[in-house]
Every structure is written in C-alpha cells, then in structure tokens.
C-alpha cells in the first residue's frame, strides 16, 4: 500500500512495477488526480525552485521543457503522462484518504482504514508493506494564533487551496506571508492594476536571482537527439547545487555572500522598504527564496508591503499592531505547511506509533528519514531531516531505491518483515543533530524547528551526494529480520558465490602475473648465461 499525496508515491510505484515486476499494490490518493503538490497548488506563478531537468525522474528525462524552471501546469502534465505510461491509474484509489494503518503481528500485515473524502464512507483493506508518501507539504498551515482569523466575512484561503473560480479584479487583497509561495504569486496577482494588494511580512527573507531561462529549439533538439546530453546537463545542475555542501565556504566567503545578497535586495527593492527587507539571520538558516519577479514588482503602485504586524483580523479587514484598520475583500494565507506532526495514524509492534516516536524524541525523527523502530515494513519518503537546498525529487528517488531493497524480500515471500533497530537509529540522529548544532540552521526561528526554536527536524545537514552514498544499499545489521530464513540463506549463498568468483579471478590474475614474472626471470638468466 502506498499513501501517495506527493509525486514521490508515483515514483515508488513506477519503481515497484519496473524494477521488481510487482503489480499487487494500491495507491491511496486524497485528490481527484495524480500530481500531489503539483495538482493541489494552482496559484498564479507556481513553479519549481530547482532547475526542471533535475526535478524530473532520472528514468524519464524529458527533453522538451520550456524553461529552466517548470511551471505548475507543465509539471503536473508530466506526472499525468508518467501515470499513464506506466499504467498506474488502475492501482489508484482517488478521493481516498488513509486514516490509519495498524500492524497485526499474528497475521504479519497491516489493517488499513481509508475514507472517501466526498462521502465520508470508510473502507478497510490489508497490506504487508506500507509506504508513506505524504510529503512535507501535505497539511496547509493556517495561522490560527492570529486573533479573529475566523471572524473575517470576506473570502479567505490558503495559497495551497487556491480556488479556480476566484476573480480578483477590483478587489482589495491581503497576502499574509512572503516566503516561496507568496513571492511566486504576488507578481501575478498584482499584475492587474485594479487589484490592490497589501503583503504582510512578519520576517524578511533572503532572495537570490533565479531567472526562468527559456530553452531554445536547438537546445531541446540536442537534449532529444544527442546521447547523454540531458544527463550531462542534469549532472552539471546537481554539481552546481551540491558543491557548496561538499566543500563548505570559508567565513570570508560567507561574509561576501551575505554582502552580495544584501546588495541584490537593496538594488532591486524600493528604497522605502530598505530598512525592513534585510533579514537579521544569516543566509541559509531559512529557505532562500528564488526571486522570479517579486522584488521588481514592489515598484507597482497597487502593491504595498506592510511590516507593522497583525494585531487581529476583523469582519471586514485587518488591524495592524500600530492600530491601523485596513479593509479587505480577500485574504490569502501564504503561511506554509504543518511539518511537526505526522498526519496518519500508524501503529506497529507493542502499540508503537509514528507520532508517539516523534513525541518521545522531541520532534520528527527517523532512521535515514525513512524507517522508524518497531514499525515493521513501514517506510517514509521525504521523512524527517531529508530537506536539502537541492532537488526534493532526487532525494526521494534515492529513498525509492533504498526502500526497494527492503521490500523485495517481503514481496517475494523470502521474509515476513523488517524493522529498524533503535540503537542505530539513535546513533544516526545524534550525528544529525550534532552536525546541525554547528550549522546555520540553529541561528533563526524557523518552521523547520519544533515550535520555531526547538529541535531542527527538516534539513539534512550534509551534501546530497552523501545522502546518495549512505542510502545506496541498506546496512542489514541495522535491521531486525523476521521470518527471513530463506532470505538469510539466499544472502549467504550469494556471498559465497561472490567470494568464489573473486577468488577465481585473483587466482587467474596471480597465475598470469607469476607466469609472466617467471618468463621474464628465465629470460634474464638466459641472457646472462649467453
């Protein structure tokens, strides 16, 4: 069973079909179509932050992307095409949300309870393996801590739930938040001069330039027809993103970077905002926002930034902390997503739960962001501490390959279940948190920390290349295998065969080398005698 509210679930399903030849699985999809975040987020200007050639499956590179960064309709169409190509639709239960998965140790399988989101009807099924692809942007974060948020009589919604029928013309629009989503849709929303936009910013963010560069017809032809061209292009993008993590910059270089980013913001933003636009924390502590037009449109007369803070929301608008009342017709919340809690009830051995494990460890915690002790045959994509400034899809692809190796013995009947041990999980996470404690991630209040200032649960604090290396194959000593006698013997036979092959190759090489040495020695002796 795959609970797939992100494209990672589709990636896992494709790999299960193509790599394992296994077809008896069900994908539970809360929405009415595939695509995860790229189906749900339809706000104007929605696009990938990472270059699109690295934000696509390595097994299904696409040569005809229009620009360096894909827009939402194009990316969504890509995933629909893949779902059709690999015949995934018969496996998908649409408009269905998984409520719980409870392990039955006697039967060594999960009982799944799911709900039709339209009718509320509940249904149950069983599964030997559960893969959670909920992602980190599954539950929109509504700032209910703002007094009066539910009193507003106008139209209000989270940017991840953008109404397709909304008409903003001649409306007064409040945008609360200015991170990645807000910075993407504010330029589009404010393009119509009849729309009066006020963007409320609590904390400024760092911006860098990331223009959407069109691919020429020639480049698309090269990608489509020249072998390895796309893969080399993709490899270059990966190197460009990952190099700063492989070889961390010096303090001097970091200082210059901060100065350059400060200059970039001040050079592009109107002078009246300069005193409010520069963050007081170092770049990298929070997600750096790609400036795809946000700073430029701040010069528009129908767009205003407000840094006064929100005291409360009333029926017809917002009262700032300075006491000013601003009337609005529409409020858009660009306030991110809930990452602290796991939204599905998963129960394993002896009553262990995912959320219980999180709570016991001070926040989201997992082994390699993928497995949790005492939760058999359960694996997560984009779990705790898997966030990188690179391609989320690449991170998930690495996990997909890792998970395949863990579930193959179960699906083939060679093992009943695997569960990660507590000790290596604790060791791994102690290493993660120790590294984070010396990093930029602890130098600001962030959504990636418990309650904003506690445990840092989202970033992976090393290069994504190291992530790939660690997850290229499981360390089986870190797992407990149950009902795995066939699998154990198969591994032993494979190890013996590998040893014998190596021994045979080494013996042959030694024979060749020693034979050549003898001939050389005989030749030297014969030459001396003559």
Structure, explained:
This protein has helices at residues 7-19, 37-40, 72-85, 180-189, 217-225, 229-246, 251-268, 274-277, 294-297, 354-360, 392-411, 422-437, 464-470, 485-529, and strands at 2-4, 27-28, 92-93, 96-104, 109-116, 122-127, 130-133, 155-158, 172-176, 196-200, 207-209, 289-291, 303-306, 310-314, 317-320, 325-327, 330-333, 345-347, 378-380, 417-420, 479-482. It has 530 residues and is α/β, with parallel strands linked by helices. It has a five-stranded parallel β-sheet with strand order 3-2-1-7-19, with helices on one face. Strand 4 (96-104) and strand 5 form a beta hairpin. Helix 1 packs across helix 11. The radius of gyration is 27 Å and the shape is globular. 38% of the residues are buried.
Write a concise keyword list for the protein shown above.
530 residues; 5-stranded parallel sheet; globular
